[in-house]
Design a protein that fits this description.
This protein is α/β, with parallel strands linked by helices and 449 residues long. Helices cover 39% and strands 14% of the residues. The protein contains 13 helices and 14 strands. Strands 1-2-5-8-9-10-11-14 form an 8-stranded parallel beta barrel, surrounded by 4 helices. Strands 3-4 form a two-stranded antiparallel ribbon. Strands 6-7 form a two-stranded antiparallel sheet. Strand 1, helix 4 and strand 2 form a beta-alpha-beta unit. The longest helix has 22 residues. The chain is globular. The structure holds phosphoenolpyruvate and manganese (II) ion (MN). The site of manganese (II) ion (MN) has 5 residues, from loops. Its EC number is 2.5.1.54.
């Protein structure tokens, strides 16, 4: 296999999908040059560690919990926001680990998730009775969310802002996970007042007390492993903007192979997985563990061809297929893919994204999802894999650590009318903190079954 990374011009000449049209090419080149000399955000060895963990996931020896915003924003890079998200992920991981008796690989959809593919290049809104059409918002990496002509112009300086925002986020996350915040003895303190008042919060309290007891027992008999004090946490994002991703790719001095050093795990989206496209061409050369989304239009042959391209040596842990069918389609659509891929002996981790096949517009115009559909798709995913004797490896969820109102249903029975209360997502609706925890309890039960 060739380890020579194609140059940016080669990728550009392939006409990559979903790229911004920048008005000023020189400014783009300047940003790329600057990024190319910036220090790595993650290290190649850390990426290799994650590949090994993903290999364990593919064998059913660990479960992947991948979560975070649909689209991070620069404004969202605050200590509170990052901590709340991390805390919720840690709570979910504890529920899965303890409730499901399974090691959990924790992967933030964080510190780099700033670029969004869009189904339409344009967005039309009625402003003061007048219909106005502007370029679509493509994530803070590209343009501004504000609905004005000036804000929607793609600005290449934002690529450097992505680097800085990712560095700040990752720095804080690293401090939290190694500095004691993620210590299992803090398991109670992650449950703040707001959650404690909910039914699921009380359920968590009970589980945390059981963990406390188990830890007191271990301390009493003289066991105090380092594993209790710190957790492994990795970062991930959709590697969409080839200018940024290519500039953030470095040749590792140990192996002399290219790694994307802007995140540990990167994935190819549903809209950019064309077999002969520039994204697949870029991804097949980097050595990170990688994901590829597969929606209802993907055939088993597509999956096989992608696996052959992206993981020609069939290396365990290298490739993850993230399926996103929708609750109503997964039971019909998934078996064919899994059966054929498995029959061909392809090594892959299967992960369920129960979000992107379940989005719809509520009667009051909000883009939303039903909590019951999210749980339903994960249940379908487990049922399909269990019936085929294959491994349901994990979940990828869009979630936040805040009390937002973006997804309807769940134990707190959020209604369509309630969406307006605190809808903050700039792109897709996220599970709020209670819904995230609630989902973790459901999944823990599926793991146990
Ligand atoms: C996403 O993960 O936010 C996304 C755009 O997903 P997909 O590529 O599966 O549509
Ligand atoms: Mn999304």
């Amino acid at each position: 296999m060739s380890s020579t990374l194609p140059d940016l011009e080669t990728l550009r000449a392939m006409g990559p999908a979903q790229q911004p049209t920048y008005p000023d090419r020189e400014a783009v080149d300047a940003a790329v040059t600057r990024l190319s000399s910036m220090p790595p955000l993650v290290f190649a060895g850390e990426c290799d560690d994650l590949t090994e963990k993903m290999a364990a996931v593919s064998r059913g020896e660990a479960f992947l919990l991948q979560g975070g915003d649909c689209a991070e924003t620069f404004e969202g890079v605050t200590a509170d926001n990052v901590r709340n998200k991390l805390r919720t992920l840690l709570q979910m991981a504890v529920v899965l680990t303890y409730g499901g008796s399974m090691p959990v690989v924790k992967l933030g959809r964080m510190a780099g998730q700033y670029a969004k593919p869009r189904s339409s290049d344009l967005e039309t809104r009625v402003v003061d009775g007048e219909s106005i059409t502007l370029p679509a918002y493509r994530g803070d990496a590209v343009n501004g969310f504000e609905f004005t002509a000036a804000s929607r112009i793609p600005d290449p300086h934002r690529l450097l802002d992505v680097y800085n925002a990712s560095a700040a986020t990752l720095n804080l996350v690293r401090a939290f996970v190694t500095g004691g915040y993620a210590d299992l003895r803090q398991v109670h303190t992650w449950n703040t007042d707001f959650v404690r008042g909910s039914v699921v919060g009380q359920r968590y309290e009970q589980l945390a007390s059981e963990i406390d007891k188990a830890m007191s027992f271990m301390t009493a008999i003289g066991i105090s492993p380092e594993e209790l004090r710190r957790v492994d946490f990795h970062s991930s994002h959709e590697a969409l903007l080839l200018e940024y991703e290519h500039a953030m790719t470095r040749i590792d001095s140990r192996t002399e192979r290219p790694y994307n050093v802007s995140g540990h795990f990167v994935w190819i989206g549903e809209r950019t997985r064309q077999l002969d496209g520039a994204h697949v061409e870029y991804f097949r050369h980097i050595r990170n563990p990688i994901g590829c989304k597969l929606g209802p239009s993907a055939t088993a042959d597509d999956a096989l061809a992608l696996a052959a391209r992206l993981n020609p040596d069939n290396e365990p842990g290298r490739l993850t297929f993230i399926t996103r069918f929708g609750a109503g389609k997964i039971r019909d659509g998934l078996p064919g893919l899994v059966e054929k891929v498995t029959a061909e002996g392809v090594s892959v981790a299967w992960v369920c994204d129960p979000m992107h096949g379940n989005t719809f517009e509520a009667s009051n115009g909000f883009k939303t999802r039903r909590f019951e559909d999210v749980v339903g798709e994960v249940q379908g995913f487990f049922d399909v894999h269990r019936s085929l004797g294959t491994v349901p490896g994990g979940i990828l969820v869009e979630m936040t650590g805040d009390d937002v109102t973006e997804v309807i249903g769940g134990g707190e029975e959020l209604t369509e009318a309630g969406l307006a209360h605190r809808y903050e997502s700039v792109v897709d609706p996220r599970l709020n903190r209670v819904q995230s925890l609630e989902l973790a309890f459901h999944v823990a039960e599926m793991l146990r079954a």
